From TrEMBL:
Keywords: Oxidoreductase. The active site is at E264. Transmembrane segments: none annotated. The keyword Nuclease does not apply. Pfam families: Aldedh (PF00171). Residues 27-487 form the Aldehyde dehydrogenase domain. This is NAD-dependent succinate-semialdehyde dehydrogenase. InterPro entries: Ald_DH/histidinol_DH, Ald_DH_C, Ald_DH_CS_GLU, Ald_DH_N, Aldehyde_DH_dom, Aldehyde_DH_Superfamily. Gene3D superfamilies: Aldehyde Dehydrogenase, Chain A, domain 1, Aldehyde Dehydrogenase, Chain A, domain 2. Belongs to the aldehyde dehydrogenase family.
Amino acid sequence: MSETITADREAALISSVPKSLYIDGQWREAHSGARLEVQDPSTGKVLCEVADAGEQDGWDALHAAQRAQSDFAAMPPRQRADILMRAFELMHERKDDLALLMTLEMGKPLAEAYGEVTYAAEFFRHFAEEATRISGNYQTAPAGNARFLVTKQPVGPSILITPWNFPLAMGTRKIGPAVAAGCTSVLKPSELTPLSMLALAQILQDAGLPAGVVNIVVTSNAGGTMEPLIRSGIARKLSFTGSTAVGKKLLEQCADHVLRTSMELGGNAALVVFEDADLDKAVEGALLAKMRNSGEACTAANRLFVQRSVAKDFADRLAQRMAEFQVGRGVDDDVKVGPLINAKQRDKVQELVEDAVRSGAEVLLGGEPIAGEGYFYPPTVLFDIPEGARVRSEEIFGPVAPVTPFDTEEEAVAAVNSTEYGLSNYVFTNDLTRALRVAEAVESGMVGINQGVVSNPAAPFGGVKESGLGREGGDIGIDEFLETKYIGIAM
């Protein structure tokens, strides 16, 4: 990480990355010959072009997965585990390239990119271990006249759709359990950040994954390419990470053939600080919960509720710490905040800030886009957000921390739950009873107590309400790719 990144180093890395579709174990161009541009969000300039798939390419990928399914499901679990472990090791061997590649196409600071490579690789190691632990059950029927044999089998070919904000980890979090369970797949990464997933496909190929097991289809026409595949009934599973609006459309498409679904959708996480909390630790936790990935995370703390007696002190401390965060290209030394993904996202963040200020919020830090090339937005702290402000109800996806005072625990819980989302929340207090009481009362799939990061490959990740269905990670993540079969045996 101490290496100085030169323009020649960047160019050499981009040149070395596959830029074709990966279908049936082969690198190939799109049938139409179309290509799409991949942009560096820190400059707005084009990094390279990659193959741009159409519907026929999607069909080729799905049919390849369909052909490979039977043999791959029959592969011994230990062999599937060994492939995942080899991929885990290769990711660590190539961490320098993977981290830099991610920074170039997505913008996040290089230190965070290294962290994501480690996090992403852990999904392969975790599910390599889970592959050999798939179990069933055998029991006597209550009447004694039969035996119940319960077993688990791969759900079948799966469609995996990943977002741009964690381009490597969101892929391994889906590929890991699919491979461990014995499922083949077609994965569509975001067209904004396809290079990380193409590099991962190369790693899987080098690790010995059989042809057709994982197929990577990059496309600028997601609906036209993927909807026919989803509606075909050939795939039996869809795992999607992205917005709630898109997730709802995909659920409708899955209804045609009743596909199994995992949906990790939008979030509007709240961070609650009670007056008895250690404010220094609460500020540090808030920095992690808010500023990870420059706020472009579904688990990011979008709403910070702080008990009134300490609210202004907390907000001032947070603003002081966030003011120390250097903004710039992710490859530059000491940068803590990279660009937002594109101009559209930067403009949305600014709209939310302007709306909050018009509504009466006080700006303690930032509040205006940074001029110049790239899509930069400064760390911003807003204080005392009126209830009608959009920032109270809409996902920000940027480095903006809106702090709102509250008086009672009941008021805080009601504010936390006043959203259609329910992915993650965070609670800071030194009262263990209160911590557990609030954690049980808030409506979310995950709660962090006195910590600003809850994601862990060994723990279940997912939400409630309009934040999604199913769980990824943990010892139940593999179940999303398994069907339970009961066999009754007469005695």
